[in-house]
Automatic annotation (TrEMBL):
<keyword id="KW-0547">Nucleotide-binding</keyword>
<dbReference type="InterPro" id="IPR027417">
    <property type="entry name" value="P-loop_NTPase"/>
</dbReference>
<dbReference type="GO" id="GO:0005524">
    <property type="term" value="F:ATP binding"/>
</dbReference>
<dbReference type="InterPro" id="IPR014016">
    <property type="entry name" value="UvrD-like_ATP-bd"/>
</dbReference>
<dbReference type="Pfam" id="PF13538">
    <property type="entry name" value="UvrD_C_2"/>
</dbReference>
<keyword id="KW-0347">Helicase</keyword>
<dbReference type="GO" id="GO:0003677">
    <property type="term" value="F:DNA binding"/>
</dbReference>
<dbReference type="InterPro" id="IPR027785">
    <property type="entry name" value="UvrD-like_helicase_C"/>
</dbReference>
<dbReference type="GO" id="GO:0000725">
    <property type="term" value="P:recombinational repair"/>
</dbReference>
<dbReference type="InterPro" id="IPR000212">
    <property type="entry name" value="DNA_helicase_UvrD/REP"/>
</dbReference>
<keyword id="KW-0067">ATP-binding</keyword>
<dbReference type="GO" id="GO:0016787">
    <property type="term" value="F:hydrolase activity"/>
</dbReference>
<feature type="domain" description="UvrD-like helicase ATP-binding">
    <location>
        <begin position="190"/>
        <end position="604"/>
    </location>
</feature>
<protein>
    <submittedName>
        <fullName>Helicase</fullName>
    </submittedName>
</protein>
<dbReference type="GO" id="GO:0043138">
    <property type="term" value="F:3'-5' DNA helicase activity"/>
</dbReference>
<feature type="binding site">
    <location>
        <begin position="211"/>
        <end position="218"/>
    </location>
    <ligand>
        <name>ATP</name>
    </ligand>
</feature>
<keyword id="KW-0378">Hydrolase</keyword>
Amino acid sequence: MSDAGVDRETVRTEEIAAEQRYLNVLYGKLDDLRAETIQRLKDTLRDSGGPPQARTERDISTRMYTDKLTQLSAVEHGMCFGRLDLDGGETFHVGRIGLFDEDDEYEPLLLDWRAPAARPFYLATAAARDGVQRRRHLKTSWRKVLDYEDEILDLDAAEQGSDLGLAGEATLLARLDARRTGQMQDIVSTIQAEQDRVIRAGMNGVLVVQGGPGTGKTAVALHRAAYLLYTFREQLSKRGVLVVGPNPTFLRYIGQVLPSLGETGVLLSTVGGLYPGITATGTESAQVAEIKGRLSMTDVLNAAVRDRQQVPRDHVEVTFDREPLHLHRKDATAARTRARRTRRPHNLARRVFREEMFRALTMQVADRLGRELLDRRDLDEINVELRADPEVARALDELWPELTPKLLLDELLSSPERLATATAKVLGDAERDALSRPAGTPWTPADVPLLDEIAELLGEDDAQERADRERAEREELAYAQGVLHIMEQDEEIADEERLRVSDVLDAELLAERFRTRSDLTAAERAAEDRTWTFGHVIVDEAQELSEMAWRVLMRRCPSRSMTLVGDVAQTGALGGTQSWDQVLSPYVQDRWKQVELTINYRTPAEIMDIATDVLAAMDTDLQPPRSVRTSGHQPWTRRVPADELTTTLPGLIGDELREVGDGRVAVLLPPALLSESGQQLAEALPDAVIGTRPDDLESPTVLLTVDQAKGLEFDSVLVVEPEAMAEASERGINDLYVALTRATQRLGIVHSGDLPAVLARSAENGGAVAG
Ligand SMILES: Nc1ncnc2c1ncn2[C@@H]1O[C@H](COP(=O)(O)OP(=O)(O)OP(=O)(O)O)[C@@H](O)[C@H]1O
């Protein structure tokens, strides 16, 4: 090594040692904070009894300290990842949380990445330094500093910088090249400038983030949730943030990102998961889901509800007081008109209908007895008796029943007559018949927006339910208090010296007993309450949502403080979005803002070249995102006779598995082929699964449809029968684009017929290499 080389090495070793000393101080601080929080939690848990107010405060403290502990544990790995050296000689370290020095007037030891002062770490460039001289990315493993990357922001650097304007390029590329684990990782240490602007955008109004595949939309959406909770804590901790993803597998994939960012005030859900008490496990064709997603379903549901407000053809006869009593068409029609005129939802207007009917029936009975002989009190008595009569009640229920959303929708879809009446003005015969299904069929995700809509049309007479809930809460509270009391009596637990972390874990479990009460986070409460409104709503893969799904989300967010991320070139759902304007204008007219992400962090340039041809074949003026890197692997194609596909694929997949080592391989198949041959393929390979459950992504090989792979990524991807994929639906070409852009390293295309014309370049470039 030359002298200069030796010098550089010495400097590097010294710098690493200095950073290590600093990190030791930070971790010492972290340990102190943990110990202090554990102690406070112990004190809170030991303290029991007292008036309800004191208990409520204790519940809140328990939650607060438990949350804090979770947060302090989540930051252990990679707590400090960067440093900024400013013009005046000042330096700041940046990390996953903020730490302060109490002994030095609370000087910051570590800046939380979300704090305004940390912003130059993401935004400063050589051309716009913002007072920054040097940005340093630290490479650490747990508490150990391994290395660092420095960027000197001066004019020379400005001239030499890459045209993508990347910050911390080496650190970024190392992260992007890493093997995938089946779980998304946070990007706090390498957020890029265009992403930072989205993450830190103001909270008012609707922000649409349009970006091609791999531009970090999901990552940005999640970091934005964390940023908003940090910055607008007061506002958001009361109402919570809702993050909506396309399916449970995707939620599982992103589920770990937020806790590691230290946030718990967020509800992650699909639209299908937003109706409390329902797990939408049913499946149906894309065509049926599309029909259910149309805005015109509001007319169908309105008609379905009105259809449950009947009048007799002439009259209905019941026996009251051993005499016949008639519910006349004329009276019922008048009662129905009055009830409908109130414009109240069905279950609340029902009261008006019944009042009117009881009044008419009272008069009928009075006439029978001789009305002139009766006074007010007699009439009241008759009215009370009529109300108590089961036969009268049954007859009135026939005319205007109390309904639940589930009952109404199940009875609507399983009754050809009801369906025909409700859809008469809206659907043709074929579409109507497509909706028909047997009673008790499991709920599908597309049913959920319908149930939500019906819940609005029916209204809830929930007085009884609320009373029951409050009683149950009181009982649980009493139970938990009892347990705490027993703990307190226990000498061992009361002995401070003997309490250790394991005791606190038990206590955490105990605190779970308080779940349904005051210590619930906004997100937890929201999950149990259909009418909850959120402080902010973030929607990922927003292009997939139907018009009916948008109505659900808009109901959950009357303030319209929303971030919608998506890519209209990737829309797969038949009822999904082609234009953001079309989706949003009914709710906010033109009062929404769009920003674009342009850099692709996932798909290497070799693969993106091919995907770009597919994008160009779509009817869109969208630009493809620019890849930050090449992988050195040309995509390959392989033609295999159709009847040899299932026997040849295992060998091809095996080759890819060897290439990616401990990484992940995804095989993307057209839905028909997956259901036909998926089982046989999965059995022919070790550790291969058909991806139906959320944790299947952690398997080395997973077989999926494009729809299931949306939003996900893998080290290597095999796209099987691209022609069938492109022709499977109206949006097939979009699906093909999605399929091609899932790989972080390698792409193979396996086909039995001719390659679709849009993929001609893949055969030219990579050629038929495999096998
Ligand atoms: N600034 C960054 N630093 C490190 N990794 C990043 C950065 N931005 C994005 N990534 C990584 O790039 C990959 C793609 O990101 P993400 O899934 O968020 O993209 P997307 O736009 O949602 O893609 P798609 O539209 O295809 O679903 C992920 O592995 C993500 O961690």
